[in-house]
Amino acid sequence: MFDTWVLRRPAFFILPSIVIIVALLMSASSPALSLLSLPQILTKLKTFLPVSYFNTPTTAPLATLSTTPSVSSTTTISQPPKMPKAPVYFFSHGGPDVQYNTTHPVYPILQSIGKEITQKVKPSAVVVFSAHWQPENVGPDEIHVNNAEKTDLIYDFYGFPPHFYKATFPSTGSPSLASHIISLLAKSNIRARGLSRGLDHGVFSGFNVAFPPASNPLAVPLVQVSLFNSENPQAHFLLGEAVQSLREQNIVIICTGMTVHNLRDMRLAFGQPQPMPYAVSFDNALKEAVEQPDAEKRKEEMVRVLKRPDARQAHPWMDHLMPLYIAAGAAGGDRGRQTWTMHEASFAWAQYRFGELPEEK
């Protein structure tokens, strides 16, 4: 039952006896013995304990023994790995024909980005800012958030074939996420309110290419947020910054517009072998500004690019450019990278991603 080492060691039995004897000797109920000093007590004990017990060293002085485990000053307590923030995307979405024009070079690009989002990032939800939603009949400092769970589509275009007006895009909203977005905006002193609104073609046309329901469905909640009804880049930077914490919940922010968008010159430019000069020069200058590695420098350069002589040619109205400023604001310190572009007539189709994919961490 006991190890043979235990049976061979008298101390195994003697040590408890010593403790009991000492306690009795020092007890107040034995006044005669309590007058003895500890050395005298030990002398008396030697008369009936083996000498070898007193000559055998213990492994450590009793004062140093402790039942509390020691912790080295160099001990490192491991922390759970921090989840990477979801990337932010800017889609150049094109017109309502983009979902039908399968031979256009942007078609496989948007498909590839969509698969990247659903298969690599795997978001818990998507929040989208579209160039086609600037609230009307409100001041330039109010934001609207779609808080409906089920929404229709808004066919906000004219003169296209009848089947364009039968397009569908299945999606489910999230009233709770919409409410959370409104609270985030309020914390940043941005006026916002929720309402029920359909998805405009700045969302559903490009999303039907990136997230085709049959082969790569966007099977997570989708909430659309408006732009400001202004051309103020600083305000749109702040709008992006106000919602950047969504990324920590693996919510992907997608901003849709065009990096060059001049409808006035479209008829003049289409069919020409070369794009309009401003489509090239402005798109290149914008790329240089967005790809600045320092976030503050990026903001400065993106504001400065709007003062270029070709800026108003590239964007007679800045609605299709402001979503890129929201994306840059939501990116925080994460770098932006142009993943693809194309200069065509009076348009440029640049696609951007801010931040890293999960496997790149």
TrEMBL record:
One of its GO terms (molecular function) is ferrous iron binding. The chain crosses the membrane at residues 12-36. Its cofactor is Zn(2+). Keywords: Dioxygenase, Membrane, Metal-binding, Oxidoreductase, Transmembrane, Transmembrane helix, Zinc. InterPro entries: Extradiol_dOase_DODA, Xdiol_dOase_suB. This is Dioxygenase. Residues 89-339 form the Extradiol ring-cleavage dioxygenase class III enzyme subunit B domain. Pfam families: LigB. The keyword Membrane applies. It comes from the Eukaryota. Belongs to the DODA-type extradiol aromatic ring-opening dioxygenase family.
